[in-house]
Structure formats: structure tokens, C-alpha cells
Amino acid sequence: xLFLAESIVFSSxxxxxxxxxxxxxxxxxxxxxxxxxxxxxxxxxxxLVLLLKSFPFAQPGxxxxxxxxxLLIQIGILLLFFKRVKNNLSKFMSxxxxxxxxxxxxxxxxxxxxxxxxxxxxxHYLKKNDSNYLVAGSVYADLPFHMNLMxxxxxxxxxxxxxxxxxxxxxxxxxxxxxxxxxxxFCSVLMAAGSSIxxxxxxxxxxxxxxxxxxxxxxxxRITNSTRASIMSIFITLLAGGIGGFYWVLENPYWFTEIFSxxxxxxxxxxxxxxxxxxAYWFSLPAHILFPQRTVQHAYPLAITTFIVVWKVIEGKGTxxxxxxxxxxxxxxxxxxxxxxxxxxQKQTGKKNNEEKKNNEEKKNNEEKKNNE
Length: 373
Description:
Elements lengths: L1 H23 L5 H23 L11 H22 L3 H14 L1 H21 L2 E3 L2 E3 L4 H16 L27 H11 L4 H28 L2 H12 L5 H8 L3 H4 L3 H5 L5 E4 L2 E4 L3 H6 L4 H21 L9 H48 L1
Antiparallel strand pairs: 1-2, 3-4
Helix pairs in contact: 1-2, 1-3, 1-7, 2-3, 2-7, 2-8, 2-14, 4-15, 5-8, 6-7, 7-8, 8-9, 8-14
């Protein structure tokens, strides 16, 4: 059953990429379409499960019929996408190749960030240590809340939830739920599909945090048109939250080896770092926001995507430039122009057909009138 859970995750991501690529490429770049897909795909997949649970065949909870049908629909969307784009794939590939060749450093960095994200998610969520299950950062404060909500969808008070139902709070008896529940509901879907609680947190979290870092780069590349500045923006974001971490690094010669140790991950939460007579504050983005406050793993990528779209509308430019900037930009403009010309031709053809039909009707009426006279 674990295969079913993983299939739902990856097919939802591929579906979102397919839809965004088909509708918006080359207005959005290939890498932007790719990085948008995890948050958008998982959110839409959760809504699809809620929709299917509204039909009579659905059993209480999240039953296997709904899960298998969700997977079939997602695979069907993917096959439909390949059928639609296969004839135009050669036109797209030249732009995609140019874009990838220009952003090779970024792609290499994203591989490193993916490995880092997998490691961080692994140590932050219910890591087994002897007979204990441990968490890192400030996850200990938030995870019980999320686990309670997840369990309520699988076998608790919200197991009959549908797309139009009122959700009940599992925390305050008799009160309605007022919370963005989709991230936790998607974890419930994976649990119902055979995943453990830990894996339902680690797998989506790894993809979502990686995509967020990628989107930060791509947004800043649109704004600055500088690869260096865009890469720097990722590290500025990760190290935001105060200078306490820098003090800790400067005073500890073994910091690089310690940050990968179990003692560091599960030791004291270093929100404050005491140095001499002063206290330095460090509210780390990953340890205190991304991993404990799980809803932001979905919200941040979607919010950054909105900024990219707004910037694209305001700027009115093509997609991300390639190494041979002018050539790539011309190809992108060509592709956009072709699409616009096709649309315009279709409109003109329709208008011409309507005019001919109108003229034929008038001619026929005139002939009938003449015959009657």
C-alpha cells in the first residue's frame, strides 16, 4: 500500500506540472512550471479526494475506492497532457535546453538542497532513536496539533468530511474547525493509502521545501536577471531570523560537524545564543517555521508563484533568458507569436464563416421575395 501513497504524491506533482506547462509555457519558464508543481499538485489532489468522497460509493473515512480512483484520474490527466503536447514537443525542447544550460549551477544547487531537505525532514519528524521517537527544532510544540488533525480525517470526528461539509474541531469539543486543513488532510490521504505518519510528513515536506527554495531563486532571477544574486537570495532566506546562528558558528570551531550530529538535532532549541554578556536571537526559518508550522510548506511556494505571475504581468517580458539571451528570447517570442497568430486566424475564420452565412441567408431571402412577387 505504500506504493499507492507514493504514486499519489508523484502523480499529483506531474499533473500540476503538465497543466501549468500546457497553459502557461512559455509565459512561465520550464523551471518555474517544474517548481510550482509540488505545492499546487498536492493541494489539488487533496481537493480531488474531498470531491470524490462526496459521491455515494465512498465509504466512511478515506477508503481504497476513492484512493484508487484519485490515482486513475491523475494518471489520465497526465496521459491527456502527453497526447496534447507531443506534436509541439520539438518546438519546446530548444527553449528548454537553452534554459537548462544557462541554469546549470542552479540545477546543481537544487540537487544539494533536495538532499539537505530530505535530511532535515528526516531528523525533524518522529526520528526513531532506540525506543523513542524524536523531533528537532520546535516541532515538538506543533506536531501534536497536526497529528490530531490528521487522525481526525482518517478515523476521527472528520472521517466523513466531504467538499461541502462543515469540519469539526478535534481540539475544542463541539466547535467548528477554523484552520487551513488541506496540508494535514493530504497527509491523511497518504496515511489511508498505507503510509506511516512519519513518511506522510517527510515525503511531501522534502518536495515542498525544495520547490520553495527553487521558486525563491526564480522569482529573484526575474527581478534581478542575475544568477549570482538569485543564488544568494536562497542563502539569505535560509539564514534569516537573527544573528545568533552566526555567533554560534564563530565561537564553535566544530560547528560544521556538529550540525549533522544527532545531539545537535535533538539537543536544546537554539532560539537564543548566549555570547559573553549579551544574548543573540536566532529564530531559524527551517527549524522554527518550515518544519513545525506545516501549512507554510504549501503556502510559501504558492505565494511566491503568485509574485512570479504578478511580476510577469507587470513586466510584460518573456520567460527566463538563456545563455545566448537574444536567441532564446526570440524563440520564446516566436512561440508566443505563433500561438497568438493561431488564435487570431481562428477568430478571423469564424468571423468570415459567419459573414458568408449571413450573406447566403440574405441572398436566399431576396430570391424568395422576388419569386413571390
